[in-house]
Each structure stands twice: as structure tokens, then as C-alpha cells.
Amino acid sequence: MKLTENQRLKILRQHLNMTQSQFGMIVNLKQGSYADVERGKVNVSGDIKNALFKEFSINVNWLETGDGNMFLEDAVREKIKIDGIPMFNFPGSASNVEMYGDPTDVKIIGYLNIPGATKSSFALPVHGNSMYPTLENGSWCVLRPIEDRQDIQWGEIYYIEYGDYRVFKRLLASDNEDSVILWSDNQSETIGSRPKYAPKTIKTERIKKLCLLTDILKKPNY
């Protein structure tokens, strides 16, 4: 007999060795109200699933159907172990130019086996020459998402999404706390007496996505 969603929720709680009271706090329900969920008197709501996903990385599909692993990280870890980290089809620019294209047309085109990669790591190709010689046009960059801006390592290279731009830049601290400097390593190319790839200062609040560059796979010279 197939288990219900409510019964799988109980199995999950027992697997985590937590009491109903402790588990209820996680999903923002009092002990009595949570007990009704396990008994099947109340459906497992979307709010409960979201709370468990954020707290424990549970596989919501497992909770709803019983298919797959109990925890999403188990499946991702196995995927990384077998196939490597995903390589996506859209490039990051190494110049301050807009990268046009359908933002929903994102596909995995392959995998890379990189020692030390995290479950959230992924790879993108480089387009442009503003970060030469550190990043060459056509190279692949392994990236790790940064959730907390307090974790920024100033002077390191990041993949940054802001406005309609997707760029690779070295991130430098600005004199203003609400701004950051996007620095290009290629300072040898000039237009007249001015650098072709001049530093650009943007407001921190404009950054939609920030990923630390952890590895570079340079394009072969042939």
C-alpha cells in the first residue's frame, strides 16, 4: 500500500530524530496543529513544503510521490559524483556589453568533473577579452554562488548579473559602502589615451546574482 504525503512527512521527521514540537517549529505550526497533519486530518501545505526545502533541502517530489531521494542534496551529490557539475549554454561577457538572448532558454549542454566542486557549482563560457590574460575568450569558468554579500572576497573574480548584463569582473571595494567597482584585468588595450575596458562602479543593490570564480578551464592553443 502506497504511503500518503502525511505519512512520508512523519517518516521524514523520525529520520531527522525530531519531536513533533521541534518539527512544528520548523514549519511554523504548534505541536497540536502539526500532529493533525501527520494524522492526515490536515493536508501537507505548500508552506510546509517550502519550509522543509529551505531548512533541510528535502526533495519535494519524494514527499509528494515517494519517488527519488528523501533529500535533494543526495540526488545532486550523486549527480556531481557521476556526471560532474552542469555546463550551461549561455555565456558571461568579459566586456561591459549587454548579452542579449532569451533568459528562459537556459540548457545544460554537458558536465565537468572538478575536484572540490560544491552541489551549487556550475560552469559558464567566457565571451570577450576584457579579462585577458586571466580569462580568455572561449574559456570555461567554474562558479560558486554567493548568497551573503558579507562573504565577498575583494580582489577576486566574480560572475555578476545586474540589469541586463552578465559579466565576469574583478570585484573591488568602493569608497561608498553601497557601491562596488567592476575591474577589468585587460588594461593594455586603449582607445586614444584611455583604457578600452575602464573600471565601472555600480550600486550593490543592482546585483541580482553573484558567483565566485573557483576554477578556469582555458581554451587549448590549437
Summarize the structure.
This is LexA family transcriptional regulator. The chain is built from 6 helices and 12 strands. It is of the alpha+beta class and 222 residues long.
Notes on the structure:
By secondary structure, the protein is α+β, with helices and mostly antiparallel strands. It has two domains: 75 residues, 434 Repressor (Amino-terminal Domain) (Orthogonal Bundle); 133 residues, Umud Fragment, subunit A (Ribbon). Helices cover 24% and strands 28% of the residues. It is built from six helices and twelve strands. Strands 2-4-5-12-6-7-8-11 form an eight-stranded mixed beta sheet, with no helix packed on it. Strand 6 and strand 7 form a beta hairpin. The longest helix has 11 residues. The radius of gyration is 23 Å and the shape is elongated. About 4% of the residues have low confidence.
